[in-house]
């Protein structure tokens, strides 16, 4: 079961202004559907392909070409909706959003304005262990992406690459429930994590497969609560929309800047104009792109080429039955099943691949020890090794589990285990075999340890006297014995024997 004893964080208040102001943020996230084919054609969606090689006639807007819905994309949108605990609409419909753009040769984008496939859902955004905010999802609709115009290849001409034209996007629209820049970034991070767990979008922000339009407004304390009570937007300030952000860092910077810009206008007695803005990361500022008056009239109307999209409840149920365990559930289970801290559990579940790796290591072993090894040793080593992904780890879960098993059996100490880990990391091999072959086994034979202890005591009479007067100095003898045995003596046995021999 999910532990929902969460506390909501306080809204961000902007310092340095004459009055107190609070931020209100709503995001429209465009997530590329993880499908090999486009939304209405069989053309490939492969990233980085030769320009204009992934274009079907329908993508190129050839006369008489008809779109055919890709069932796989619909299934992934439904899966996403279910993952966000959202309402699935068994009937939805496609509309034409009319505008001319060179990289969308149809002259319109097929989207879902009036009847989206997914309705209201939610995302629980973690801010710190035990502190989270519930961000409501308003809707998710399916639509086509546009292509890419290239203006910097030739001084006189522009080029167009239609490979992306017609690729399926899910537009995930949040309610204005986000109250600060860090929360906005955390929301995008959580959404990305859920989509990656579901396998419905790869979340690659660098390639533009996940990008956000960020709506920002400011209001006075108390206004947001009034909006929450009534759902009446007139309690909120006028919003500006910052388009096409594909970096969490830039999202935060743009919101900070935009909030200060709006506050300065309002405190000067002015009014914020609703408009679309662009963020310039080099200058660290947002710039006006177009105002509401210049906004296009898209003349939406139902797409006559496509029938309303009817899906069956049984099909939705099948998809629901195939949902994987999601991040919140997995994290809660790691805390209870393996005795991990919330923090460790969230680090391990950040990516589904690291969670799977950890589980394979921890199977039948001490969970906390497994978590420490994965987080501190393995993650640390991968980071040092050019920030390698867990899927590229040279040490397999079986090998790391083997190392931990040797510690648990008392065959090696924690210190030797670190050396062994490095050997396995760089050379590979079976940990138990390496320990055997290289004589790394811990000496638990008390006879051998006793001999070493006797030797150190006999050779250092002055130290013996000091230790008898001050038992804390016994540690020196332990250190000497460990050194003499090449770190292989069982530390507990050494401790016990030193204490006994010194009569402490
Ligand atoms: P549009 O397509 O005109 O941008 P949408 O309904 O698709 O409109 O998206 C509007 C987005 O703006 C939603 O994410 C919504 O939560 C957010 N939003 C609406 N009003 C405000 C406001 N006053 N402050 C901040 N965000 C807002
Ligand atoms: Mg918008």
From TrEMBL:
Residues in Asn/Gln amidotransferase domain copies: 356-502
Reactions the enzyme catalyzes: L-glutamyl-tRNA(Gln) + L-glutamine + ATP + H2O = L-glutaminyl-tRNA(Gln) + L-glutamate + ADP + phosphate + H(+); L-aspartyl-tRNA(Asn) + L-glutamine + ATP + H2O = L-asparaginyl-tRNA(Asn) + L-glutamate + ADP + phosphate + 2 H(+)
MF-aspect GO terms: asparaginyl-tRNA synthase (glutamine-hydrolyzing) activity; ATP binding; glutaminyl-tRNA synthase (glutamine-hydrolyzing) activity; transferase activity
Function per UniProt: Allows the formation of correctly charged Asn-tRNA(Asn) or Gln-tRNA(Gln) through the transamidation of misacylated Asp-tRNA(Asn) or Glu-tRNA(Gln) in organisms which lack either or both of asparaginyl-tRNA or glutaminyl-tRNA synthetases. The reaction takes place in the presence of glutamine and ATP through an activated phospho-Asp-tRNA(Asn) or phospho-Glu-tRNA(Gln).
Gene Ontology BP annotations: glutaminyl-tRNAGln biosynthesis via transamidation; translation
Family that this chain belongs to: Belongs to the GatB/GatE family. GatB subfamily.
Gene that encodes the chain: gatB
Subunit structure comment from the entry: Heterotrimer of A, B and C subunits.
Signal peptide (UniProt feature, chain positions): none
Stored Gene3D superfamilies: 1.10.10.410, GatB domain, N-terminal subdomain
NCBIfam families linked to this entry: gatB, PRK05477.1-2, PRK05477.1-4, PRK05477.1-5
UniProt superkingdom: Bacteria
Enzyme Commission number(s) from the entry: 6.3.5.-
Protein name: Aspartyl/glutamyl-tRNA(Asn/Gln) amidotransferase subunit B
Keywords, ordered alphabetically: ATP-binding, Ligase, Nucleotide-binding, Protein biosynthesis, Transferase
